[in-house]
Amino acid sequence: MQRIDDRELHEECGVFGVFGVPDAANLTYYGLHALQHRGQEGCGIVSVSPEGRMCRVRGEGLVTEVFNESNLAGLKGNMAIGHVRYSTAGGGGTENVQPFLFHHVTGDFALAHNGNIVNSTLLRNYLETKGSLFQSTSDSEVLAHLIKKEVRKSDQPRIYSIIEALNMLEGAFAFLIMTANRIYACRDKYGLRPLSIGKLGDGYVISSETCAFEVVGATFIRDVAPGEIVTIDDHGLRSRDYSQFKRHEMCAMEYIYFARPDSDIEGCNVHAFRKESGRLLYHEAPVEADIVVGVPDSSLSAAMGYAEESGIPYEMGLIKNKYIGRTFIQPSQDMREKGVRMKLSSVSSIVSGKRVILVDDSIVRGTTSRRIVRLLREAGATEVHVRIASPPFKNPCFYGVDTSTYDELIAARMSVAELCDKIGADTLAFLSPEALLKSGGRSELCMACFTGHYPTALYQSIEQANKNNKC
Can you say how many angstroms the Cα of residue 410 is from the centroid of all Cα atoms in its chain? Predict the structure, then answer.
């Protein structure tokens, strides 16, 4: 789900679900708090009461701002789903804050989504001509209308409608669909978005990232497979494939930037992946220097790997102020600029007189990289060599990362040498796509933002990206 902060990229969204655990909404609150890094614009929880009634609390802001003891007390029952969001398709506003709640003759249901549906405009037009009335501008709502579009099939189990609906979607998604009796966990057939299942007592939890399991005391069971629907109810877990086309093209940016380092994605720990990418980055782009410095927080693991492999000391040359909110929340670019200056500071006594290797996870617009290089030089660094633990970000992403036009991507219009000069570094080097795969021992990753090879059809998306290109 999409937009850009001055730290370059916005995470997607996060989903969390609980089945068969008392006070499920309270547990969901803690799960969403663990996933807060995936979305800070809004959040919500829908629970099912013992009488089968669905109740919802949602709002714009952080988890701790939206929820309190009073409104959580109204979310009763042992089943709930929750969502934290950034806005992608559809933009912001309370009406776009999930989970969505729908009332229907076949039974009420709630829906939470992480990802981006690339054919949502076409499907929305189709549904509106069939009489559907949308409550929001979010692409996520399309699935709900597809599920309930065939009223004549209301006598059959809902899973058949879900299967039919999912097969009409193209793009990246991890869906949680909750009815009065069960939760369906669904993942796109390309495996672009993560979704995992854990066990807690006699019940289950579902989360975008495994880091939330540790917080709530759950034990990881398995990932939802690409093209799979897992039904969770009083019968336990039941699996059904809605598609026989299955790939494992996890978004590379989950490993590089989005996910927490204590999460495991498809059997690979994020910290370990980043650290290995730093080691490989050293072998591909060595340079003589005195210290290695990582950009807090997502680049620290890669910086540690680079330092260990090179034998050059790792130092905390940059400090992040933990009490400054993420700068994209600020309503104007000028306020974002001030927020970033407050957020990162250099340690002069560490970097002064030193040749510094600055390790970062990516360069998107280049403004942050330029500012950090300048910060280190002002602190007395004699040289700043920038090493990026990913390939150049040259192509828009249409799967839930907020880079939908070429104009937003500085590497799309500059060579590495030009970009090095632009950010004011002495040298600049990027990790290769081959090394990125090797970092996680993988044969597949979605690296469309680096290589331009998109795993899905894009419909109108690429045309819009080219139309907006001002290069």
Answer: 22
Mean pLDDT of 137-144: 84
Domain 14-247: give its CATH architecture.
4-Layer Sandwich (3.60)
Phi first, then psi: what are they for 240, rounded to 5°?
Answer: -145, 135
Instruction: Write down the pLDDT at residue 35.
Output: 97
Instruction: Note if 471 is an active site residue.
Output: no
For 271-467, CATH gives: 3.40.50.2020
Give CA–CA dist 97/91, Å, rounded. 10
Are the CB atoms for 416 and 391 separated by under 8 Å? no
Cβ atoms within 10 Å, residue 431: 26
The pLDDT value given to residue 404: 61
CA 393 to centroid of chain Cα atoms: 17
Band the pLDDT of 328: cuts 50, 70, 90.
Answer: very low
CA distances from 330 to 30, 95, 285, 298, 414 (A): 25, 21, 37, 21, 29
User: Edge-to-edge strands of the sheet including 100-102?
Assistant: 100-102, 109-117, 171-178, 183-187, 228-233, 236-241
Mean pLDDT, residues 22-39? 97
What residue spans define the domains of the chain? 14-247, 271-467
Give the C-alpha separation, 183 to 18, whole Å.
8
Q: CA-based Rg of the chain, rounded to a whole angstrom? A: 22
Q: What is the pLDDT of residue 327?
A: 45
Phi and psi at residue 335, in whole multiples of 5°?
Answer: -70, -35
pLDDT at residue 13, as a whole number: 92
Mean pLDDT of the chain: 89
Phi, psi of 357 (to 5 degrees): -100, 115
Q: Shortest CA distance to 32 belongs to which of 42, 21, 20?
A: 42
Instruction: Phi first, then psi: give them for residue 451, nearest 5 degrees.
Output: -105, -20
Report pLDDT for 6: 43
Residue 447 CA to residue 363 CA, distance in Å, equals 15
pTM assigned to the model: 0.90
Most confident of 5-19, 127-141, 142-156, 373-387: 373-387
What is the DSSP pairing of strand 54-60 with strand 171-178? Answer: unpaired
355-360 β-sheet, strand order = 291-294, 355-360, 383-388, 427-430
**Which DSSP string corresponds to 110-131?**
EEEEEEEETTHHHHHHHHHHTT
β-bridge mates for residue 45, sequence order: 57, 82
> What's the rounded mean pLDDT across residues 142-153?
73
Q: Are strands 196-200 and 203-207 parallel, antiparallel or unpaired?
A: antiparallel
d(CA 18, CA 429): 44
Average pLDDT over residues 11-17: 86
Nearest to 456, CA basis, from 196, 206, 243: 243
